[in-house]
Design a protein that fits this description.
mainly alpha, 149 residues
Length: 149
């Protein structure tokens, strides 16, 4: 019995059968088995369908178009040859994210940033005269440029 699904030389048997070079005893045995085995029958049907398929005709200027496209791609900048056009579908998404981020920053730039109550109270209680006095004291304590030399 020749079962195509269990045979190690499936390709060899199929090629011989489809080309008509399979010996008559094995051909009869394969056809009987295919009548009973759905898998083998389906495999033979697929191969017969492929034999009946006709490839479409190639246009007369196919070679010229192919060589022109190769030349065009070889003249493209290195970054286009390296990265191609895979990024183009992501461009609208990236632009939308950038617009959304910009809108959020413009709408409320200090959102979520609130000073602590202690810091706010300290800022309000600062006396300007005290700050000026502290700066003057620091100037007196700091050595001048002449003294350092």
């Amino acid at each position: 019995m020749i079962c195509l699904t269990k045979n190690d030389d499936v390709a060899g048997v199929l090629v011989e059968y489809l080309s008509g070079t399979l010996d008559s005893d094995r051909k009869v045995e394969l056809e009987r088995h295919a009548a009973e085995c759905a898998d083998c029958r389906e495999m033979l049907a697929v191969w017969n369908t492929l034999d009946e398929w006709k490839a479409p005709e190639v246009s007369p200027d196919f070679d010229a178009k192919l060589y022109a496209r190769i030349a065009q791609e070889s003249r493209a900048p290195w970054w286009k040859r390296a990265f191609g056009d895979w990024w183009k579908p992501a461009l609208p998404v990236a632009a939308g994210c950038a617009v959304l981020a910009l809108a959020l920053m413009i709408r409320d730039p200090d959102a979520g940033v609130t000073p602590e109550p202690q810091t706010k109270a300290r800022i309000e209680s600062v006396n300007i005269e005290q700050v000026e006095q502290a700066l003057e004291d620091m100037d007196l304590l700091a050595p001048t440029a002449k003294e350092r030399l």
